[in-house]
C-alpha cells in the first residue's frame, strides 16, 4: 500500500478517536458516570467522566471496516474488542459501592502510627486495613486524627475471578492458531499458556499504570511507536499497521486525557490497550523488544506485587501514587515515566544495533 494511503488511514483513526472520545465524554457527563478517586491527592478530580475507553471500542470497529482484508488487524481488533467488553463489565460492576473508606489527617504535632503507616504531621491517608479501622476511632477521639472524607470504594470481583476472565482474550488468540513460533522458538501446545500469560500480564501492567492523566495512553503511544520503528529498522514491516494504529488511537485519546484530563479511560480502555499491545507484540513476533518497551509498567506492577506480598511497604499503591503522595507533582511523574519509556526503547534499539546484531 502506498505511503499516502497508510498516512490517510492513520489520520482517519486519529481524528475518529478524537471525535468518538468527545462524544463519549459528553454522553458520560450527561449520564453522570464520573470518577470519585480514592487517592487523597486526586480528590479534586472527582466528577471527571470515566469509562472513556468506550471511545476505543468505536475506533476499533472503524479499524475493522478499514482493514477487513488484513488478517493481523482483524485478529488484533477482535482481541481488543474482547478485552474491551470485559473491561466494560468491570467498569459497570464498579458502579456499585462496596464500602466507604475513611480518610484521616494527622492534626497532632507528632507522627501517628496507624495500621501499616506512620502518618506524618499534616499527612492524610485512607483507612484500609482491619488494624487501622480498629485504631482510627480512638485516635480521632484523642484528637490526634481528623476525619476529612469518606471515599466510596467500588465493588470488584475476587482476584481469582478477575484472573480467569483476563485469561480469556489470550485463550481466544491461541484458538486462532496463527501464532506457532515466538522469539525463535516453536511453541506447539505451549502456545496456549504462553499467549494467555502474555496477554494477562499486559492487561494488568497497563491497568495498573492507568492512574494519572495521560500516563497509560502516553506510555502505550510511545512503546507502540518504537515497536513500529524497531520492526521497520530490522526488516519486520508487519509491525507498521498494528502498532501504528494502536499508537494513533492513544494520541487521539490524549487530546482529552492529557493533564488536566477531562476524561478517564477506565478499565474499558486499559483492557483494550493491554490486549491490543500484547496481541500486536505476539502477532508480529517481537517479544523481547515488546516486553522491554513496556518495562516501566511491568516494573511498577512488580513493585505493587512486592507491596501486596509484604516484601516492601508503600504508603499508597501503585508507585506513581506513592511518588505523588511524597510531594512530586503529577505532571513531573507522568513526564518522567514517559521519558523513562523513551530511554528504555532507545537503549533496546542501540543494543540490537551494536550488541545483538
Descriptive tags:
357 residues; mainly alpha; three-stranded antiparallel sheet; two-stranded antiparallel ribbon; 62% helix
Describe the protein's architecture and organization:
The protein is built from 13 helices and seven strands. The protein has helices at residues 3-30, 54-66, 71-93, 130-141, 159-175, 191-209, 215-233, 240-257, 266-283, 287-293, 295-308, 319-325, 330-354; strands at residues 97-106, 112-114, 117-119, 124-126, 145-154, 181-182, 185-186. The strands form three sheets. Strands 4-1-5 form a three-stranded antiparallel sheet. α2 runs antiparallel to α3 and α7 packs antiparallel against α8. The two termini are 29 Å apart.
Specify the number of helices. Answer: 13
Gross geometry: globular
**How would you state the average pLDDT, rounded?**
90
For the biggest sheet, the summary is: 3 strands, antiparallel
Return Rg in Å.
21 Å
Instruction: Indicate the low-confidence ranges by residue numbers.
Output: none
- Compute the separation of the termini in Å: 29 Å
> What's the order of the H and E elements?
HHHEEEEHEHEEHHHHHHHH
Helix fraction, binned, reads: 55-70%
Task: Look at the helices and sheets and give the structural class.
Answer: mainly alpha
- The count of DSSP E runs of length 2 or more, i.e. the number of strands, is 7
Main-sheet strand order equals 4-1-5
Give the DSSP E fraction (strand runs of 2 or more residues): 5-15%
